[in-house]
Amino acid sequence: MIEKANIKDAELLTSIALTSKAYWGYSKELINSWKDDLTVSPKMIEEMMVYKFISNQKTIGFYILNQPQNNTIELEFLFVHPDAIGQKVGKQLLSHAIEKSNNLNIETMTLLADPNAQPFYESQGFISTEKKESSIPNRFLPLMKLNLK
After folding, report:
1. Which residues have CB under 8 Å from 1's CB, separation 6+?
2. Which pTM was predicted?
3. Domain of life here (predicted)?
4. Digit-coded pLDDT (tens) for 60-86
5. Which of 106, 39, 36, 35 is nearest to 68 (CA)?
């Protein structure tokens, strides 16, 4: 079940983001250096579109959409707890985000992907449009987009 997150969920969603990121084998030091970037604040939950995936009364994933600009919306976060990876939770969250975007008559969804997640997004129809340098020297992140119209 997917439902709107509330500000009380901020700490749990942050924990899921950090745990999910660590799934890809990044060092603890690297994960800690990204903590600010992966923190879900109560303000984000108030100002953005934040939805969580609940299974067996437990939150196991979530996504955040930024407010749309010029018929484009950015998928800021999409994270699934490692225990639920491979169970189509990410696909269901992404489908929900696309549905919400379509309801707003958005033309394009964009995201900055972790390189490990790029194949997932490509399998869902996203294309890589350019590479952005990350905070790690010589590491580039794919900027991806999906045409919704």
Report:
1. 53, 54, 55
2. 0.93
3. Bacteria
4. 999 999 999 999 999 999 999 999 999
5. 106
- CA separation for the pair 118, 37 (Å, rounded): 19
* Angle, alpha carbons 81-50-96 (nearest 5°): 80
Q: What is the pLDDT of residues 80-94, one digit of tens each?
A: 999 999 999 999 999
List the beta bridge partners of residue 128.
144
Q: Which tokens hold the place of 57?
A: 């009364």
Number of C-alpha atoms within 13 angstroms, CB side, residue 24? 14
| Region of poorest pLDDT, from 36-50, 76-90, 105-119, 133-147 | 133-147
The domain segmentation of the chain, as residue ranges, is: 2-147
CATH of domain 2-147: 3.40.630.30
User: Is the CB of residue 52 less than 8 Å from the CB of residue 3?
Assistant: yes
Report whether 5 contacts 63 (CB < 8 A).
no
